[in-house]
Design goal:
The complex is a heterodimer of chains A (112) and B (397). Chain A is 20% helix and 37% strand. Chain A is α+β, with helices and mostly antiparallel strands and 112 residues long. Chain A has one domain (2-111): Alpha-Beta Plaits, CATH 3.30.70.120. Chain B is mainly α. Chain B has a single domain (3-386), classed as Orthogonal Bundle (Ammonium transporter fold). Chain B has 16 helices and no strands. Chain B has helices spanning 3-30, 36-63, 89-108, 118-140, 144-148, 156-174, 187-206, 214-242, 247-261, 272-287, 290-294, 302-320, 323-326, 341-371, 378-383, 385-390. In chain B, helix 3 packs parallel to helix 6. The chains are: A alpha+beta (112), B mainly alpha (397).
Protein backbone atom coordinates (compact mmCIF):
# COMPACT_ATOMS: atom_id res chain seq x y z
CA UNK A 1 0.00 0.00 0.00
CA UNK A 2 1.19 3.49 -0.84
CA UNK A 3 0.30 7.07 -0.01
CA UNK A 4 0.45 9.36 -3.02
CA UNK A 5 0.91 13.00 -2.05
CA UNK A 6 0.54 15.67 -4.73
CA UNK A 7 1.08 19.42 -4.41
CA UNK A 8 -0.81 21.12 -7.23
CA UNK A 9 -1.92 24.55 -8.38
CA UNK A 10 -5.27 25.40 -6.76
CA UNK A 11 -6.95 26.12 -10.10
CA UNK A 12 -6.09 22.59 -11.28
CA UNK A 13 -7.75 20.79 -8.35
CA UNK A 14 -11.10 20.31 -10.09
CA UNK A 15 -9.43 18.86 -13.19
CA UNK A 16 -7.46 16.40 -11.06
CA UNK A 17 -10.54 15.41 -9.06
CA UNK A 18 -12.61 14.82 -12.21
CA UNK A 19 -9.83 12.77 -13.82
CA UNK A 20 -9.39 10.60 -10.70
CA UNK A 21 -13.12 10.09 -10.32
CA UNK A 22 -13.63 9.03 -13.93
CA UNK A 23 -10.75 6.57 -13.47
CA UNK A 24 -12.66 5.01 -10.57
CA UNK A 25 -10.43 6.21 -7.73
CA UNK A 26 -12.48 6.00 -4.53
CA UNK A 27 -11.18 8.83 -2.38
CA UNK A 28 -8.94 11.90 -2.14
CA UNK A 29 -8.10 14.18 0.77
CA UNK A 30 -7.40 17.83 -0.11
CA UNK A 31 -5.83 20.53 2.08
CA UNK A 32 -5.11 24.17 1.38
CA UNK A 33 -1.41 24.67 1.99
CA UNK A 34 1.23 27.34 1.38
CA UNK A 35 4.81 26.80 0.38
CA UNK A 36 7.66 27.64 -1.92
CA UNK A 37 9.76 25.65 -4.35
CA UNK A 38 11.95 26.77 -7.17
CA UNK A 39 9.26 29.33 -8.05
CA UNK A 40 10.30 31.10 -4.82
CA UNK A 41 7.07 32.99 -4.11
CA UNK A 42 6.20 36.28 -5.79
CA UNK A 43 6.37 40.01 -5.05
CA UNK A 44 3.58 42.54 -4.51
CA UNK A 45 4.04 46.29 -4.75
CA UNK A 46 2.25 48.69 -2.41
CA UNK A 47 2.89 52.44 -2.66
CA UNK A 48 6.07 51.67 -4.58
CA UNK A 49 7.47 49.32 -1.91
CA UNK A 50 7.97 45.69 -2.87
CA UNK A 51 6.93 42.92 -0.51
CA UNK A 52 8.10 39.34 -1.04
CA UNK A 53 5.28 36.83 -0.65
CA UNK A 54 7.44 33.79 0.16
CA UNK A 55 4.69 31.20 0.48
CA UNK A 56 2.45 30.59 -2.50
CA UNK A 57 -1.02 29.03 -2.01
CA UNK A 58 -1.19 25.39 -3.19
CA UNK A 59 -3.47 22.41 -2.66
CA UNK A 60 -2.14 19.18 -1.20
CA UNK A 61 -3.94 16.03 -2.42
CA UNK A 62 -3.49 12.70 -0.66
CA UNK A 63 -4.57 9.41 -2.19
CA UNK A 64 -4.21 5.96 -0.64
CA UNK A 65 -3.61 3.27 -3.26
CA UNK A 66 -2.74 -0.38 -3.60
CA UNK A 67 0.70 -0.92 -5.11
CA UNK A 68 -0.70 -1.92 -8.51
CA UNK A 69 -2.67 1.35 -8.88
CA UNK A 70 0.16 3.73 -7.99
CA UNK A 71 1.63 4.36 -11.42
CA UNK A 72 -1.81 4.86 -13.01
CA UNK A 73 -2.85 7.43 -10.37
CA UNK A 74 0.45 9.28 -10.60
CA UNK A 75 0.04 9.49 -14.37
CA UNK A 76 -3.57 10.75 -14.06
CA UNK A 77 -2.57 13.50 -11.59
CA UNK A 78 0.44 14.51 -13.66
CA UNK A 79 -1.67 14.71 -16.79
CA UNK A 80 -4.49 16.68 -15.20
CA UNK A 81 -2.39 19.11 -13.14
CA UNK A 82 0.24 19.96 -15.72
CA UNK A 83 0.37 23.44 -17.25
CA UNK A 84 4.04 23.28 -18.24
CA UNK A 85 4.72 26.52 -16.36
CA UNK A 86 6.77 27.08 -13.22
CA UNK A 87 4.93 26.22 -10.00
CA UNK A 88 3.06 23.12 -11.24
CA UNK A 89 3.99 21.24 -8.05
CA UNK A 90 5.22 17.75 -7.18
CA UNK A 91 4.05 14.23 -6.53
CA UNK A 92 5.73 11.77 -4.18
CA UNK A 93 4.88 8.27 -3.06
CA UNK A 94 5.51 6.77 0.37
CA UNK A 95 4.92 3.32 1.81
CA UNK A 96 2.00 2.76 4.18
CA UNK A 97 2.23 0.13 6.90
CA UNK A 98 -1.44 -0.30 7.70
CA UNK A 99 -4.87 1.11 6.90
CA UNK A 100 -8.11 0.71 8.86
CA UNK A 101 -11.62 1.61 7.66
CA UNK A 102 -13.14 3.03 10.83
CA UNK A 103 -16.78 2.13 10.06
CA UNK A 104 -16.21 -1.60 9.53
CA UNK A 105 -12.82 -2.29 11.08
CA UNK A 106 -11.56 -3.71 7.76
CA UNK A 107 -7.80 -3.52 7.39
CA UNK A 108 -5.16 -3.58 4.64
CA UNK A 109 -6.07 -3.45 0.93
CA UNK A 110 -9.73 -4.02 1.76
CA UNK A 111 -9.83 -0.67 3.57
CA UNK A 112 -8.58 1.39 0.64
CA UNK B 1 -27.91 83.12 10.83
CA UNK B 2 -30.35 81.97 8.16
CA UNK B 3 -31.79 78.52 8.64
CA UNK B 4 -30.23 77.31 5.35
CA UNK B 5 -26.74 78.21 6.54
CA UNK B 6 -27.34 76.69 9.95
CA UNK B 7 -28.58 73.47 8.36
CA UNK B 8 -25.51 73.23 6.14
CA UNK B 9 -23.11 73.70 9.06
CA UNK B 10 -24.89 71.04 11.11
CA UNK B 11 -24.86 68.57 8.21
CA UNK B 12 -21.22 69.37 7.50
CA UNK B 13 -20.33 68.76 11.13
CA UNK B 14 -21.85 65.28 10.94
CA UNK B 15 -19.99 64.65 7.67
CA UNK B 16 -16.67 65.57 9.32
CA UNK B 17 -17.41 63.33 12.30
CA UNK B 18 -17.88 60.44 9.85
CA UNK B 19 -14.36 61.02 8.52
CA UNK B 20 -12.75 59.66 11.69
CA UNK B 21 -14.27 56.16 11.29
CA UNK B 22 -13.39 56.49 7.59
CA UNK B 23 -9.79 57.23 8.51
CA UNK B 24 -9.84 54.31 10.94
CA UNK B 25 -10.79 51.90 8.12
CA UNK B 26 -8.38 53.55 5.67
CA UNK B 27 -5.54 52.97 8.13
CA UNK B 28 -6.92 49.75 9.62
CA UNK B 29 -7.01 47.96 6.27
CA UNK B 30 -3.42 48.98 5.57
CA UNK B 31 -2.30 47.76 8.98
CA UNK B 32 -1.50 44.18 9.96
CA UNK B 33 -4.54 41.99 10.69
CA UNK B 34 -3.33 41.43 14.26
CA UNK B 35 -3.27 45.20 14.92
CA UNK B 36 -6.38 46.40 13.10
CA UNK B 37 -8.51 46.80 16.23
CA UNK B 38 -5.76 48.81 17.91
CA UNK B 39 -5.78 51.10 14.89
CA UNK B 40 -9.57 51.49 14.99
CA UNK B 41 -9.45 52.19 18.72
CA UNK B 42 -6.71 54.80 18.38
CA UNK B 43 -9.01 56.63 15.96
CA UNK B 44 -12.29 56.15 17.82
CA UNK B 45 -10.58 57.25 21.04
CA UNK B 46 -10.09 60.66 19.44
CA UNK B 47 -13.85 61.09 19.00
CA UNK B 48 -14.33 60.07 22.63
CA UNK B 49 -11.86 62.37 24.36
CA UNK B 50 -11.58 65.38 22.07
CA UNK B 51 -15.25 66.53 21.98
CA UNK B 52 -15.25 66.82 25.77
CA UNK B 53 -11.95 68.69 25.89
CA UNK B 54 -13.11 70.88 23.01
CA UNK B 55 -16.22 72.20 24.74
CA UNK B 56 -14.41 72.35 28.06
CA UNK B 57 -11.62 74.73 26.98
CA UNK B 58 -10.38 73.77 23.51
CA UNK B 59 -12.74 76.00 21.57
CA UNK B 60 -12.35 78.85 24.02
CA UNK B 61 -8.55 78.81 23.95
CA UNK B 62 -8.38 78.53 20.17
CA UNK B 63 -11.09 81.00 19.10
CA UNK B 64 -12.20 83.32 21.91
CA UNK B 65 -11.65 86.17 21.30
CA UNK B 66 -10.99 85.77 17.59
CA UNK B 67 -8.59 88.74 17.50
CA UNK B 68 -6.06 87.44 20.07
CA UNK B 69 -2.63 86.95 18.49
CA UNK B 70 -1.32 83.86 20.25
CA UNK B 71 -3.88 82.18 22.49
CA UNK B 72 -7.49 82.65 23.49
CA UNK B 73 -9.00 82.84 26.97
CA UNK B 74 -11.51 80.98 29.11
CA UNK B 75 -14.59 83.10 28.31
CA UNK B 76 -16.29 80.19 26.54
CA UNK B 77 -15.30 77.61 29.18
CA UNK B 78 -17.85 74.76 29.06
CA UNK B 79 -19.79 76.67 26.36
CA UNK B 80 -20.38 79.57 28.76
CA UNK B 81 -21.84 82.59 26.91
CA UNK B 82 -22.61 80.37 23.89
CA UNK B 83 -25.47 78.05 24.69
CA UNK B 84 -27.72 80.87 25.82
CA UNK B 85 -26.91 83.08 22.83
CA UNK B 86 -29.81 83.04 20.40
CA UNK B 87 -29.98 81.32 17.05
CA UNK B 88 -27.52 78.45 17.49
CA UNK B 89 -25.03 79.66 14.88
CA UNK B 90 -22.10 79.83 17.29
CA UNK B 91 -23.04 76.54 18.89
CA UNK B 92 -23.16 74.85 15.46
CA UNK B 93 -19.74 76.31 14.64
CA UNK B 94 -18.27 75.03 17.93
CA UNK B 95 -19.55 71.54 17.08
CA UNK B 96 -18.29 71.78 13.49
CA UNK B 97 -14.81 72.86 14.63
CA UNK B 98 -14.81 70.18 17.32
CA UNK B 99 -14.98 67.52 14.62
CA UNK B 100 -11.80 68.95 13.06
CA UNK B 101 -10.09 68.91 16.45
CA UNK B 102 -11.03 65.23 16.83
CA UNK B 103 -9.72 64.00 13.49
CA UNK B 104 -6.42 65.92 13.58
CA UNK B 105 -4.66 63.83 16.27
CA UNK B 106 -6.28 60.74 14.72
CA UNK B 107 -4.27 61.43 11.56
CA UNK B 108 -1.07 60.75 13.51
CA UNK B 109 -2.17 57.22 14.45
CA UNK B 110 -1.19 55.89 11.00
CA UNK B 111 2.47 56.68 11.61
CA UNK B 112 2.75 55.01 15.03
CA UNK B 113 0.88 51.86 13.95
CA UNK B 114 1.94 48.37 15.09
CA UNK B 115 3.98 49.38 18.14
CA UNK B 116 2.69 52.26 20.31
CA UNK B 117 1.29 51.49 23.74
CA UNK B 118 -2.38 52.47 23.91
CA UNK B 119 -1.88 54.05 27.33
CA UNK B 120 0.77 56.32 25.81
CA UNK B 121 -1.59 57.20 22.93
CA UNK B 122 -4.38 57.91 25.43
CA UNK B 123 -2.17 60.56 27.06
CA UNK B 124 -0.58 61.76 23.83
CA UNK B 125 -3.89 62.85 22.27
CA UNK B 126 -5.11 65.33 24.93
CA UNK B 127 -1.64 66.81 25.50
CA UNK B 128 -1.02 67.14 21.78
CA UNK B 129 -4.41 68.80 21.33
CA UNK B 130 -3.48 71.62 23.70
CA UNK B 131 0.24 71.86 22.91
CA UNK B 132 0.09 71.70 19.11
CA UNK B 133 -3.43 71.85 17.71
CA UNK B 134 -4.98 74.64 19.76
CA UNK B 135 -2.12 77.17 19.40
CA UNK B 136 -1.52 76.58 15.69
CA UNK B 137 -5.27 76.68 15.00
CA UNK B 138 -5.41 79.99 16.88
CA UNK B 139 -2.46 81.49 14.99
CA UNK B 140 -3.85 80.46 11.58
CA UNK B 141 -7.49 81.43 12.25
CA UNK B 142 -7.64 84.93 13.71
CA UNK B 143 -4.15 84.89 15.24
CA UNK B 144 -0.87 86.41 14.11
CA UNK B 145 -0.25 84.18 11.08
CA UNK B 146 -3.72 84.84 9.70
CA UNK B 147 -3.45 88.55 10.41
CA UNK B 148 -0.24 88.71 8.33
CA UNK B 149 -2.16 87.49 5.28
CA UNK B 150 -1.63 83.73 5.04
CA UNK B 151 -4.81 81.81 4.26
CA UNK B 152 -5.93 78.28 5.06
CA UNK B 153 -9.50 77.54 4.02
CA UNK B 154 -10.23 74.25 5.79
CA UNK B 155 -7.01 73.26 7.54
CA UNK B 156 -4.04 72.54 5.30
CA UNK B 157 -1.56 74.17 7.65
CA UNK B 158 -3.52 73.93 10.90
CA UNK B 159 -4.48 70.28 10.40
CA UNK B 160 -2.56 68.32 7.77
CA UNK B 161 0.88 69.95 7.93
CA UNK B 162 0.54 70.12 11.70
CA UNK B 163 -0.41 66.45 12.15
CA UNK B 164 1.92 65.28 9.38
CA UNK B 165 5.06 66.78 10.87
CA UNK B 166 3.98 65.64 14.35
CA UNK B 167 3.79 62.11 12.93
CA UNK B 168 7.44 62.41 11.89
CA UNK B 169 8.49 63.61 15.35
CA UNK B 170 6.47 60.82 16.98
CA UNK B 171 8.06 57.99 14.98
CA UNK B 172 11.55 59.38 15.51
CA UNK B 173 11.05 58.89 19.27
CA UNK B 174 9.06 55.68 18.92
CA UNK B 175 11.54 53.88 16.66
CA UNK B 176 11.06 51.34 13.91
CA UNK B 177 8.79 48.35 13.93
CA UNK B 178 10.64 45.14 14.83
CA UNK B 179 9.05 43.15 12.00
CA UNK B 180 9.33 45.97 9.47
CA UNK B 181 6.69 46.92 6.94
CA UNK B 182 3.91 44.57 5.85
CA UNK B 183 1.47 44.64 2.95
CA UNK B 184 -2.09 45.80 3.74
CA UNK B 185 -4.07 43.04 5.45
CA UNK B 186 -7.38 44.11 3.86
CA UNK B 187 -7.48 46.31 0.78
CA UNK B 188 -11.32 46.27 0.73
CA UNK B 189 -11.31 47.99 4.16
CA UNK B 190 -8.90 50.60 2.79
CA UNK B 191 -11.24 51.31 -0.12
CA UNK B 192 -14.30 51.60 2.16
CA UNK B 193 -12.36 54.01 4.36
CA UNK B 194 -11.33 56.03 1.34
CA UNK B 195 -14.93 56.33 0.19
CA UNK B 196 -16.06 57.48 3.63
CA UNK B 197 -13.21 60.00 3.79
CA UNK B 198 -14.07 61.48 0.40
CA UNK B 199 -17.76 61.69 1.32
CA UNK B 200 -17.00 63.34 4.66
CA UNK B 201 -14.48 65.69 3.12
CA UNK B 202 -17.30 67.56 1.33
CA UNK B 203 -18.40 68.68 4.78
CA UNK B 204 -14.82 69.39 5.80
CA UNK B 205 -14.12 71.70 2.85
CA UNK B 206 -17.49 73.01 1.65
CA UNK B 207 -18.68 73.34 5.24
CA UNK B 208 -15.71 75.59 5.97
CA UNK B 209 -17.46 78.38 4.06
CA UNK B 210 -19.62 78.42 7.22
CA UNK B 211 -22.58 79.21 4.97
CA UNK B 212 -24.56 77.58 2.17
CA UNK B 213 -23.30 79.95 -0.52
CA UNK B 214 -21.33 80.15 -3.75
CA UNK B 215 -17.99 79.72 -1.99
CA UNK B 216 -19.28 76.50 -0.44
CA UNK B 217 -20.39 75.23 -3.85
CA UNK B 218 -16.99 76.05 -5.35
CA UNK B 219 -15.21 74.35 -2.43
CA UNK B 220 -17.46 71.33 -3.00
CA UNK B 221 -16.56 71.19 -6.70
CA UNK B 222 -12.85 71.66 -5.89
CA UNK B 223 -13.01 68.77 -3.42
CA UNK B 224 -14.56 66.61 -6.12
CA UNK B 225 -12.03 67.50 -8.83
CA UNK B 226 -8.79 67.61 -6.87
CA UNK B 227 -9.35 64.15 -5.37
CA UNK B 228 -10.17 62.66 -8.76
CA UNK B 229 -7.16 64.29 -10.43
CA UNK B 230 -4.76 63.23 -7.69
CA UNK B 231 -6.05 59.65 -7.66
CA UNK B 232 -5.66 59.51 -11.43
CA UNK B 233 -2.14 60.99 -11.30
CA UNK B 234 -0.98 58.54 -8.62
CA UNK B 235 -2.33 55.52 -10.50
CA UNK B 236 -0.72 56.63 -13.77
CA UNK B 237 2.67 57.19 -12.11
CA UNK B 238 2.72 53.79 -10.43
CA UNK B 239 1.36 52.02 -13.49
CA UNK B 240 4.26 53.39 -15.54
CA UNK B 241 6.82 53.01 -12.74
CA UNK B 242 5.84 49.78 -10.96
CA UNK B 243 3.78 47.98 -13.58
CA UNK B 244 0.28 47.90 -12.02
CA UNK B 245 -2.59 50.35 -11.38
CA UNK B 246 -3.30 49.50 -7.72
CA UNK B 247 -6.24 50.11 -5.42
CA UNK B 248 -3.89 51.43 -2.76
CA UNK B 249 -2.47 53.87 -5.31
CA UNK B 250 -5.96 55.12 -6.17
CA UNK B 251 -6.88 55.44 -2.48
CA UNK B 252 -3.62 57.19 -1.60
CA UNK B 253 -3.98 59.59 -4.51
CA UNK B 254 -7.56 60.47 -3.60
CA UNK B 255 -6.55 61.24 -0.02
CA UNK B 256 -3.48 63.21 -1.16
CA UNK B 257 -5.71 65.29 -3.44
CA UNK B 258 -8.23 65.88 -0.66
CA UNK B 259 -5.44 66.98 1.67
CA UNK B 260 -3.91 69.30 -0.94
CA UNK B 261 -7.19 71.01 -1.85
CA UNK B 262 -8.16 71.51 1.80
CA UNK B 263 -6.28 74.79 2.36
CA UNK B 264 -7.21 76.06 -1.13
CA UNK B 265 -10.82 74.88 -1.42
CA UNK B 266 -12.47 78.30 -1.01
CA UNK B 267 -9.78 80.33 -2.80
CA UNK B 268 -9.32 78.62 -6.19
CA UNK B 269 -11.70 77.98 -9.07
CA UNK B 270 -11.94 76.86 -12.69
CA UNK B 271 -9.29 74.32 -13.70
CA UNK B 272 -7.03 75.14 -10.73
CA UNK B 273 -8.24 72.25 -8.50
CA UNK B 274 -7.39 69.80 -11.30
CA UNK B 275 -3.83 71.13 -11.48
CA UNK B 276 -3.51 71.14 -7.69
CA UNK B 277 -4.74 67.52 -7.61
CA UNK B 278 -2.43 66.37 -10.39
CA UNK B 279 0.60 67.99 -8.74
CA UNK B 280 -0.28 66.58 -5.31
CA UNK B 281 -0.85 63.09 -6.73
CA UNK B 282 2.53 62.96 -8.44
CA UNK B 283 4.49 64.61 -5.61
CA UNK B 284 2.96 62.45 -2.85
CA UNK B 285 3.43 59.27 -4.93
CA UNK B 286 7.16 59.96 -4.78
CA UNK B 287 7.12 61.43 -1.25
CA UNK B 288 5.96 58.16 0.34
CA UNK B 289 9.26 56.62 -0.76
CA UNK B 290 11.29 59.19 1.21
CA UNK B 291 10.98 57.17 4.40
CA UNK B 292 12.94 54.31 2.88
CA UNK B 293 15.83 56.61 2.06
CA UNK B 294 15.68 58.69 5.24
CA UNK B 295 15.18 55.67 7.50
CA UNK B 296 12.18 56.72 9.63
CA UNK B 297 9.33 54.24 10.03
CA UNK B 298 6.17 56.20 9.17
CA UNK B 299 4.09 53.03 8.99
CA UNK B 300 1.11 54.16 6.88
CA UNK B 301 2.64 57.25 5.23
CA UNK B 302 1.18 60.09 7.27
CA UNK B 303 4.22 62.23 6.43
CA UNK B 304 4.21 61.42 2.73
CA UNK B 305 0.48 62.01 2.26
CA UNK B 306 -0.66 64.50 4.91
CA UNK B 307 2.45 66.57 5.57
CA UNK B 308 3.64 66.71 1.97
CA UNK B 309 0.11 66.96 0.52
CA UNK B 310 -0.87 69.71 2.95
CA UNK B 311 2.32 71.65 2.29
CA UNK B 312 1.95 71.32 -1.48
CA UNK B 313 -1.66 72.53 -1.37
CA UNK B 314 -0.88 75.37 1.00
CA UNK B 315 2.03 76.64 -1.11
CA UNK B 316 0.08 76.26 -4.37
CA UNK B 317 -2.42 78.81 -3.02
CA UNK B 318 0.39 81.28 -3.64
CA UNK B 319 0.02 80.51 -7.36
CA UNK B 320 -3.68 79.72 -7.83
CA UNK B 321 -5.46 82.08 -5.39
CA UNK B 322 -8.23 83.90 -7.29
CA UNK B 323 -9.92 86.56 -5.11
CA UNK B 324 -11.55 88.23 -8.11
CA UNK B 325 -13.64 85.10 -8.73
CA UNK B 326 -14.81 85.01 -5.11
CA UNK B 327 -14.93 88.80 -4.69
CA UNK B 328 -12.88 88.01 -1.60
CA UNK B 329 -10.49 90.09 0.49
CA UNK B 330 -7.50 87.72 0.27
CA UNK B 331 -4.37 88.18 -1.85
CA UNK B 332 -3.99 87.13 -5.49
CA UNK B 333 -1.77 84.20 -6.45
CA UNK B 334 1.09 84.50 -8.93
CA UNK B 335 -0.95 83.01 -11.80
CA UNK B 336 -3.82 85.45 -11.22
CA UNK B 337 -2.00 88.75 -11.27
CA UNK B 338 -0.53 88.74 -7.79
CA UNK B 339 3.06 89.10 -6.56
CA UNK B 340 5.04 86.65 -4.44
CA UNK B 341 3.69 88.16 -1.22
CA UNK B 342 1.01 85.54 -0.66
CA UNK B 343 3.40 82.67 -1.44
CA UNK B 344 5.87 84.02 1.12
CA UNK B 345 3.15 84.33 3.77
CA UNK B 346 2.06 80.76 3.04
CA UNK B 347 5.66 79.60 3.39
CA UNK B 348 6.07 81.50 6.66
CA UNK B 349 2.83 80.16 8.17
CA UNK B 350 3.75 76.59 7.28
CA UNK B 351 7.33 77.06 8.48
CA UNK B 352 6.10 78.25 11.87
CA UNK B 353 3.58 75.41 12.12
CA UNK B 354 6.24 72.86 11.15
CA UNK B 355 8.79 74.04 13.72
CA UNK B 356 6.29 74.42 16.56
CA UNK B 357 4.47 71.15 15.97
CA UNK B 358 7.68 69.17 15.46
CA UNK B 359 9.34 70.51 18.61
CA UNK B 360 6.39 70.18 20.98
CA UNK B 361 5.56 66.70 19.67
CA UNK B 362 9.17 65.62 20.09
CA UNK B 363 9.20 66.89 23.68
CA UNK B 364 5.82 65.32 24.47
CA UNK B 365 6.91 61.95 23.09
CA UNK B 366 10.23 62.09 24.95
CA UNK B 367 8.44 62.85 28.23
CA UNK B 368 6.03 59.94 27.65
CA UNK B 369 8.92 57.65 26.69
CA UNK B 370 10.80 58.45 29.89
CA UNK B 371 7.78 58.16 32.17
CA UNK B 372 5.18 55.56 31.19
CA UNK B 373 7.00 54.32 28.07
CA UNK B 374 5.70 54.54 24.51
CA UNK B 375 6.34 51.07 23.07
CA UNK B 376 4.65 47.76 23.65
CA UNK B 377 6.84 44.77 24.59
CA UNK B 378 8.54 42.80 21.84
CA UNK B 379 6.21 39.90 22.62
CA UNK B 380 3.10 42.06 22.19
CA UNK B 381 4.47 43.51 19.00
CA UNK B 382 4.98 40.00 17.64
CA UNK B 383 1.64 38.58 18.79
CA UNK B 384 -0.36 41.66 17.88
CA UNK B 385 -1.64 44.65 19.82
CA UNK B 386 -5.30 43.70 19.45
CA UNK B 387 -5.21 40.89 21.98
CA UNK B 388 -2.61 42.30 24.38
CA UNK B 389 -3.82 45.91 24.48
CA UNK B 390 -7.57 45.49 23.94
CA UNK B 391 -8.40 41.85 24.74
CA UNK B 392 -10.05 41.40 21.35
CA UNK B 393 -9.13 39.96 17.97
CA UNK B 394 -10.57 41.00 14.62
CA UNK B 395 -10.49 37.66 12.86
CA UNK B 396 -11.13 34.19 14.20
CA UNK B 397 -10.08 31.09 12.32
Amino acid sequence: MKLITAIVKPFKVDDVKDALRSAGIAGVTASEVRGFGRQGGHTETYRGSEYAIDFVPKVKLEVLASDSDVQRIVDIITGAAQTGKIGDGKIWVTSVDSVVRIRTGETGEAAI
Amino acid sequence: MESGNLAWILISAALVLFMTPGLAFFYGGMDRGRNVLNMLMMNFYCVLIVPILWVLVGYSLSQVPFENDFIGNFDAFMLKNITEAGDGSTLATVAFLGMFAAITPALISGAVADRMKFSAWALFVPFWLFLAYVPIFKWVYGGWLGQRGSIDFAGGTAIHVNAGIAALAAVLVLGKRKAGAAPPHSMPLVMIGTGILWFGWFGFNAGSALAANGQAAQAFMNTFLAAAAAGLAWVIVEWLRDGHPTNLGAASGIVAGLVAITPAAGYVAGASPIFIGLIAGVVCCYAVKLKNKAGYDDALDVVGVHFVGGLVGSLLIGFFSDPDFFKGSFEKGLFFGGDAGLLLEQALANGVAIVWSFVVTLILMLVLKNTIGVRVSDETEYNGLDLAEHGETAYHS
